[in-house]
Structure formats: structure tokens, C-alpha cells
Amino acid sequence: MTESATTGTGPATAHGLLSGLDEIAEIGRDTRRGGYSRHLWQPADRELRDWFAERAVRLGLDVETDRNGNTWAWWGPRGDDAIVVGSHLDSVPGGGAYDGPLGVVSALEAIYRLQASGFRPARPCAVLVFAEEEGSRFGIACLGSRLMTGALDADRARALVDAEGISLGAAASAAGIDPARLGEDRTALARIGLFVELHVEQGRGLIDLGSPVAVASSILAHGRWRVTFTGEGNHAGATRMTDRRDPMLAAGRSMLAVRDAAVASPGSRATIGRIEAVPGGTNVISSQVAVWLDARATEDAAARDLVTEITARVSEAAAAEGCTAVVAEESWSGAVAFDPALRDRLVRSLHGVPTLPTGAGHDAGVLSSRLPTAMIFVRNPTGISHSPEEFATLDDCLAGVTALEQVLRELL
């Protein structure tokens, strides 16, 4: 693959990347965790939004931000029943370079190719960048799409707080978004005739199939729960081991119980990926410990049953340490089967590429309850995601752009 420098609107590659990925490669780098930390309305996110707007304008697209902080770039006149493509630009803490941005960069690249070939769309078309897909700042995954569809109550959203105690309402206001207007956006939904999201695969399916791209078939049911263990704070040196009610030990017992419950439920996944202790001192027995559970399964009932089993095991673990535990749901997404007619149309357009289920949630999954959606996956040669080691080869990324270009050419 011959590389060239980025041009004003060109589809050049640079440093082994699509040029768009190269342009944002230094934005939001996390020197402590590695990878990237790009969170809603914080400096890296604002810089990425500015980059997106500038690159879209270079392509002659018309950029706007909706009432929920999602950013649109329109190719030609705005209108209802549009073909909309895109993804997100935010990341998990210390995330990889491809999860989200690959879909945005590929959408812009596909439109450039269509423009360069002289193609003119017969329907409205837009690239859409969703706000806070990862939920890393305010704890709700797919925040922008959930607000747009009304899946997330606006009052609840406004009251969400980040790690610094800043409410989503206050953060929105500081970003120029009127918090009073957050919530279901029927006007925006009416604009979308169908939505296609390109995304790096978060798993090993395409490695095994030997294909650079695939079309999504379904998404596992999944959700997030906060588990709060309460015990008795005390002095680490003055408190005998037999006199302790240590919520950290209750949390530790529970982590093993979570793993065991998921292993006993075929096809399920359960993860504790975050922990916070109060007061958090080295020489202090915690008074309270919170952990966050991510649980997933192939069907809604299986995921709910898994969480019920985990809740019972967590309560037993807490009681064994003289503590209490409260499990509170923070978000939930039922299993998604993507629109079969649109899925099959994409498969035909891409000459019979494979279809794959995914265990990862996406904005396309949230929108699927209101309109036809589909996803194109690009091969991840390691299968690793949500990590600095996340990767996709330049050739596979270009194959993804070609696939999206072909799909848009047919749909438009």
C-alpha cells in the first residue's frame, strides 16, 4: 500500500493509518493508562468535535449539533428519510484508537470517494457522531442515542454526575447545550430513514473467518449495575482482624462469585471493571466500597437471570464479612436482532460477506428500536478492544471504507 500525505480533502493515508485517524492520533492521549481517554465535553472531546467539523467542512458538508450533543454533517440538503452513517469519537479510559473513530473517519472517507467519482445522492445523507457512547464520564453507555430515542429519561440524565461531582446538566450548559432541551428528539429521529455504523470488530470472529469485513447480525443483552458494600470504617493498625466489617473483603469475595456465576451460565459474560473505596486511605479500613458490574448474555431473560444469581451471591459474600450490599441498575439494553431486510441487503451488496453477532453495545443497537439499523465490522487481528492494543491493519480499514462506499452508493 503506497502512502501519501494528507491533502485538503483527499483520501490519503499517512503513517500506516487512514489520514483521519492520523490527524487525531495525539488528541486525548493518556500517558498514565496508555491509549486514549476522550470523554464527553472535556478538552479532548471538544478538540475531536472541532476536528470533525473542520474535516466535514472541507468536504462541503453542513455541520450542526442537536439538542442532545450529537453532531451531524449533512451532504446536500437536510431532509427526512436520510441515509445516515457514523459512530462515536469518545473512548473508555485508556481505550484504543479504533473503537468509534474508525467509523467516523471511514464515513467521511466513503463520502469523499463518492464525491470524487461524481456520484450525486438521490436521498438526504449525513454523518452522525454520537455523544458519550462509552459512558465513561456519566456512566450511561450510548447516552446521545438513548436521549434521542427517549430510552433515557431526561430528568435522570440531567442529574447524572461525573467523578468530579459535575452534573450532566451543568456540563451540557458549559458546552453550549441547553439542559432543559435534553431528551427525546422526534425531529432528529424522523430525519433518519436508516442508520449504518461501521466499527472495528471487538472480538475474534473475523480472524477465524478469514474476512476483512462482516455485517452484524445481533447484539447481546447487556447492562451495568452499581454494587455498594457498606461495612465499618476503622483504623488499619488498631482494629483486630476478628473485629472487622470490611467492605473491601466483601467486594473481593464478590468478584470471584461474579466470575463463577458467569462461567456457570453458558454464553454469558460478567465483569467487575471499576472499584471505588471510601475513604480510600492506605491505612484505613473502608467504610464503603462500590464496584461496577457489566453483565451480558444472548437473551434478555438469560442476562436478567445472571444478574439475579449474582445479586444472591453478592449478598452472601457481604454477609460473610458482616457487611451489606445493594445492587442498583444503571443502564440496560435488551438483545438486538438487526433489521433482517437491511442486513441481507448489505450482505448482498458486499458480495456475501459473513454475518456475526457481537457482545458489544453500540448506538446502532439503541436506534434499532425506532428505525432500521445495520453494522459493518472491520477485522481486528488481535481480537483486543477497549485497550491500547486495539488494532486494525490499514488494508482492512481500507476494505471497510470500500464496503461503506459500496453500501452508500446502493442506498443513496
TrEMBL record:
SUPFAM superfamilies: Bacterial exopeptidase dimerisation domain, Zn-dependent exopeptidases. Pfam families: Peptidase_M20 (PF01546). It comes from the Bacteria. The keyword Hydrolase applies. Keywords: Hydrolase. Belongs to the peptidase M20 family. This is Allantoate amidohydrolase. The lineage of its organism: Bacteria, Bacillati, Actinomycetota, Actinomycetes, Micrococcales.
